[in-house]
Amino acid sequence: MLEDLTLKLENVLKKVTGQGKLSEENISETLREIRRVLLDADVNYKVAKKFIDDVKVDALGKEVLTSVTPGQLITKIIYDKLTDLLGGNNKELTLNPTGVTIILMVGLQGSGKTTFAGKLAKFLKSKKRNVLLTAADIYRPAAIDQLKMLGKSIDVPVFSIDGSKDAVKIAEESLKYAKENHLNTIIVDTAGRLHVDKELMDEVVNIKKAINPTEILFVVDSMTGQDAVNSAKSFHDEVDFDGIILSKMDGDTRGGCALSIKAIVDKPIKFLSIGEKLDEIEVFYPERLASRILGKGDIISFVEKAQQQFDEKEAQDLEKKLLENKFDLEDFLKQIKMIKKMGSLQSLISMIPGVNKALKNQQIDDRELVKVESIIQSMTKKERKTPDILNGSRRMRIARGSGNSIQDVNRLLKQFKEMQKMMKMLKTRGGAKNILKNFR
Prior knowledge:
The chain is of the alpha/beta class and 440 residues long. The chain contains 21 helices and eight strands. A hairpin with a 7-residue loop joins β7 (269-273) and β8 (281-283).
């Protein structure tokens, strides 16, 4: 996510890092290069110009402290201005504490709107909301089927009226259905178009008037850059939406849409959609994305994802096993399953400061986790508990049973043995306890 933008900004900031002091000359030179990077990233011209002007004013007006290098100072200023550009503070989704919350989804065709409706339904269900998905896209039959399939996969009901060509009626009837079935949150999926047109706008405006939504969310494909920003402005002029969803962020290496859209339409970004799986959704925090853009990672989001998956009792049991050096392949398998639930390895690594930079030329393949999982699952319970009994014939059986090579099995066992040695060393030095305390 935004890898191209991050690498280019890092290269520019490296040049000023070695400077002894900040001067108008080296600030201007640095900002000229940053402006070029932003324009290459498809950031709106006016937005890029204002950003550079704001950074320059702050940089020239600051004294460099003895404990801070020029590079650190200008990086901090850029971080602050990026945070402001992205919205400043997190703006939460508005949910009615009593009564029904109605969320209206709008956007162009192909923006990922229907998929995001499913993601949002799963997210809100995890927050103890009783959710209903409403299929009000009457022009694309596959959209109704897609929404029904998504609803079934997350055990959320989907309201539709077979054969109806009246999107307003479908939306209105879904409100009655929700009240009758004690559902307090409705997500209405509307039709998209290949481009902004009057018919689409009229229909969305009529739905808005009929159901009086709590929130209108505009879903936009972040990879379309300035086109996305232009469509957002057109929608906002007609519909006056409340928040923006940036979809397909996992494929956006440039970041032009993310950096321009808030400044152009003056509406907050509320969520990022970062993959195809239904749990690959992130609440948007401007300061966290600014940190990622500058290659500083996002450790807070990483910890939050971990906390969602790790049971407190299991974490305590794991700590005990680590301290007593009793961590086995059964425990390792549990950790792999939890990590898989947190999202793709590439997205997780991008959140850890420094790690993404160290691995920037390496492709992190999620299939490696699947391979490890299949090898351990092909072992008996006894073999997982005591891997020392795994002789040649047992390893051959595990390789055949998991569909992997004997070399794959040997490699896993070697790596696990090395990990156990490291844990033993930590235990003898009292290190493991200290490490675990820091992550509580």
